[in-house]
């Protein structure tokens, strides 16, 4: 199975990161997968980031029928 994928990241000096992703529909059953996420550092070291965005991902591997609001935390190891 081959699914073309595109990802655009915008990183700003204040630590804000905006990511847009799109993965095409697969040959079997999954719909196209897409998301738009904003991440912002919650610590001075920028290792812990809060995120909020929209995605149509189902369990992170397949695209669904509608986009849902998501929120979470990311931890960055090293630099």
Low-confidence stretches: none
How do the strands of the widest beta sheet line up side by side? 1-2-3-4-5
In percent terms, what proportion of residues is strand? over 45%
User: Quick one: biggest sheet?
Assistant: 5 strands, antiparallel
Overall geometry: elongated
> What would you call the structural class?
mainly beta
Extended strand count: 5
Q: Element order, helices and strands?
A: EEEEE
Structure notes:
With 79 residues, the protein is an all-beta fold. Helix content is 0%, strand content 61%. The protein has strands spanning 5-11, 17-23, 33-41, 48-58, 62-75.
Sum up the structure in keywords.
elongated, single chain, 5-stranded antiparallel β-sheet, mainly beta
Task: Give a brief description.
By secondary structure, this protein is mainly beta. It is built from no helices and 5 strands.
Q: What are the SSEs and their pairings?
A:
Elements: E1 5-11, E2 17-23, E3 33-41, E4 48-58, E5 62-75
């Amino acid at each position: 199975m081959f699914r073309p994928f595109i990802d655009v990241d915008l990183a700003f000096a204040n630590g804000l990161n905006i990511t847009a992703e799109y993965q095409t529909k697969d040959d079997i059953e999954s719909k196209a997968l897409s998301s738009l996420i904003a991440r912002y550092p919650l610590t001075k070291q920028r290792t812990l980031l809060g995120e909020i965005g929209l995605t149509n991902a189902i369990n992170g591997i397949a695209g669904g029928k509608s986009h849902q609001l998501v929120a979470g935390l990311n931890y960055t190891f090293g630099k």
